[in-house]
Each structure stands twice: as C-alpha cells, then as structure tokens.
Specification:
The chain is built from 11 helices and 2 strands. By secondary structure, the chain is mainly alpha-helical. It has a two-stranded antiparallel ribbon with strand order 1-2.
C-alpha cells in the first residue's frame, strides 16, 4: 500500500526538506547581508589609515594622535552595509559645502599674499605674509579644524569607492566621475597645500619664505573648486533617485 512505500523510501521527503532548508538560508542571507563591509572597502580603510599615519606621524603630538584615530573610527559607518549609494550622495552635499566654506575663507588670505600689499588695522600697517602666518598657524593648530579636515578627506575617499562598488550599472558612471574628480581635487590639495601647511604648523616664528610660490596653493584651491562644481549636479541627481534601484549591488 501507499503507507508501506513511504516507510521503505524516505529519501524524497528528506531531499525536499534539505532543499527547503537551503532555500530558506539563501533567502535569509539575501535579506540580511553580512555585517562586515566588502573586502575592498576594508582594505581601502586600512590603506588610507596606514598611509596617512605614516605621512603625518612625525608631526603629531598626543592630541593629534587621538584625533586621528577617533576620526578614522568615526568614519567606519561610511563603509557599512547599511550605507547605500543614495545615503552616500546625501552625505556628499554637506561635505561639498564644508570644503567650499573652508577654502573660500583661506582664499581671502591667499589673495593678500598674492597682492603683497600692507594691511592696516587702524593703528599700524601689517605685512600680508605676517598676517597670513598668524591666521594659518592658529587655524592649523586648532584640534576641531584638523578633525573636520581629516574627516572630509577620509569620507570623500571611502564614500567614492563605496558608491562605485554598490551602484547599479546605470548609476555607476556618475559615481566614477565623482570619484575621478574627487581624486583630482584631493590629490592636488594633499600634494601642493598640505606640505606647506605642515611647515607653517610646526613653525615657532614667522618667516616670509614660507609663503614663497604661494601661487601653487591658489591653483590647487581652484582645482578643488572645479571638482566640486562638476560633482555637485551629479550628487544632487543621485539624491533624487529611488533607494530600491540603487540597492541591487548591495545584496
């Protein structure tokens, strides 16, 4: 009878149960992606940490060391699995605003250095390079300024890589342009501006020679402005896209 056949051959039932378990596990895995970020993002985080630490460590004190490690830990959510391309684009708007504001303020002193005309405070005439040294020396030794500057650099780097890797093919081209422009702006800033900043930061007295060839700094700022102008329309367009369309590569 049918009951005796079921007892003799239980394999179809076991195979079906095994298939159902595997299907349930696969469905659960797709709905709940791994907690850790993708391997290339973890390597990018470690690579940026180690390279910047190697470069900046000779000029660090204990406060700088604590800020450096704190900012890198604070930027870890940027590469988390929950950070979709649309959320990254929403983060890009305030970052562009911070960069623009900081550069516009610095540009005021850059123009003073370039014109090289004495400035009056109502009592005496001040040399523009001496005034710029007072400003930059104070700002570059301010912990909150260094925190914001480092955070901007790390977020721009990691956010671009995460956006490229997690976007659908239709959106990926925009992220590639954002990443390329970000690289041009940040690399020029790190190469032309940061070495001069480090020299001014660790100096104990004013020297006019610190500002020789300052035109290179202005050129790097203008290149950074150009990268922001190109990236902003792309960032705004990504913010308007539906979340579901961008999560295809996050699964």
């Amino acid at each position: 009878s049918s009951q005796s056949r079921r007892r003799r051959d239980p394999r179809p039932t076991l195979a079906m149960a095994h298939h159902n378990v595997l299907r349930s596990f696969a469905t659960a895995s797709m709905r709940n992606p791994p907690a850790l970020p993708e391997t290339h993002l973890i390597l990018a985080w470690l690579g940026s940490y180690s390279s910047l630490m190697f470069w900046l460590y000779p000029n660090m004190d204990w406060t700088d060391f604590a800020i450096f490690n704190g900012i890198f830990l604070a930027c870890l959510p940027v590469i988390s699995r929950q950070m979709t391309p649309r959320l990254l684009a929403c983060l890009g708007g305030p970052i562009c605003g911070l960069i623009s504001g900081m550069q516009i303020i610095d540009l005021c002193f850059d123009i003073c250095i370039l014109h090289d005309r004495p400035i009056s405070d109502g009592f005496e005439m001040l040399q523009p390079r001496r005034l710029a040294w007072v400003y930059y020396h104070m700002v570059l030794n301010a912990p909150h300024v260094n925190s914001v500057l480092l955070g901007i650099i790390v977020i721009c780097f990691l956010g671009s890589i995460a956006g490229i890797g997690r976007s659908s093919p239709e959106v990926q081209q925009r992220w590639l342009v954002i990443g390329a422009m970000m690289s041009v702006g940040v690399v020029s800033y790190l190469g032309a501006v940061m070495p001069r900043y480090l020299t001014i930061r660790k100096s104990s007295a004013f020297e006019a020679s610190m500002f020789d060839g300052w035109q290179v700094v202005i050129a790097a700022r203008l290149l950074l402005f150009l990268s922001i102008i190109v990236n902003l329309p792309l960032v705004f367009s990504l913010q308007l896209m539906p979340e579901e369309a961008e999560e295809q590569k996050c699964k």
